Amino acid sequence: MKFEAVVLFLGVVRGVVLPRDDTSSKVATIEAKNFKDLGAKRVQITYGPYLIPSSTDEATHGMVTSREMNALMPCRECFITGFTTDLRFEDGKTTANANKQMWLHHSGLMNLNRTDAACTHWPERMGVNGNERSSIDFTLKGTRKAGYYLRANDQVFLTIDAMNMAPAARNVTLVMEWEYLPGIPADFDIVFPIWLDVKGNCLNESSGAKAEDLVFTAKSATGWTAQHSGDLILAVPHIHDGNVNQQVFQDGKKVCESIPGYGETADFVSHNEGGDGHGHDHGTSEHTYHVSSITQCENVAKVAPGSKFTITSEYDMKTHTPMKDHDGSLEPIMGIQFLHLARPQAEGIKDILAMKNGDLDAFVAQVRGGGG
Ligand SMILES: *[C@@H]1O[C@H](CO)[C@@H](O)[C@H](O)[C@H]1NC(C)=O
Ligand SMILES: *[C@@H]1O[C@H](CO)[C@@H](O)[C@H](O)[C@H]1NC(C)=O
Ligand SMILES: *[C@@H]1O[C@H](CO)[C@@H](O)[C@H](O)[C@H]1NC(C)=O
Predict the structure, then answer these.
(1) Which residues form the signal peptide (predicted)?
(2) Which long-range contacts (CB under 8 A, 24 or more apart) does 201-206 make?
(3) Ligand 1 pocket: which of 112, 351, 356 to mutate (most atoms within 8 A of CB)
């Protein structure tokens, strides 16, 4: 397999596996959780395997991005009502996490046939997840009729950024569960994802955070302004180790607060090796507790054209050890809140049909070199 140093979905230069068409993903049917009476279906898709090289590989340091240019979707001409994401080993069953020296840095989905609500010339950022592996449920456990409308020919780009901290090369798979309703279900609103980021709508603003600070609050400089009415039904955060709190404000008023949990299960606790790579005495200082969950907000707010959303993200790296890359540099901090705006079906579909393909090259050019 060939690697080259190019750019990552979220902006860190690492090895990237050449893009490919999705030919190897596997689908299994499982039981739906919500709206079974309306014909909801649930499937598990196993993407991969992706070979993640050794941590001692000079070209990649064990960090690579794998890309599916046209990822297998659970359905076509349907409403996606939720999805979960997990990184596993090649068997598709065993969880790959910090305790086994394998990380899901990020997985990201982009709909190339739509334009992004926050950065309007890019393709639509549909979802992002990190090692916290958040679940997304647009129906709020079956209490809200809302879903993401996927058309028959929408092309979805999937990127998986995994990091191997062990000397042996290993294969991983990305296992996603998708729930959906076939067709265009009556009375369901359409969900539009909005990427609210301390680095700005197009990832080109300063969050105010300085590299040398250990305790700080990163803030969006401008924020995102709504152009349509709707219900902000769900806010899903993505942050890195070191985060202690993240807040979203609508017109200056706090509407959502997210708190991360650290090392809540053994999977999220890594064992540090001694300086020479051989020490391993299992004292408490030999363990690092990583973000294992982060709270989401539901039924966040009513949105009107002109409503303005801003975000603050607090970090305390004295209390929580930040993540490091293999070269010893700190991972860039992140402060993202994925907002989900539910809009009436007819006007939502009209807007979607009017969208052009987003400019993937412009997105890649912006994130090249660190994305702020
Ligand atoms: C999405 O874009 C791809 C690539 O340009 C194209 O083949 C496909 O037909 C488009 N789908 C829609 C729904 O426009
Ligand atoms: C990774 O998976 C491929 C395809 O199944 C297999 O040929 C290869 O031997 C695996 N490599 C490792 C290191 O497990
Ligand atoms: C960020 O990029 C967008 C889109 O190209 C542009 O409109 C905006 O002015 C840029 N902001 C800054 C602070 O450079």
Answers:
(1) 1-19
(2) 201/118, 201/119, 202/118, 202/119, 202/122, 202/366, 203/11, 203/119, 203/366, 203/367, 203/371, 203/372, 204/366, 204/372, 205/372, 206/372
(3) 112
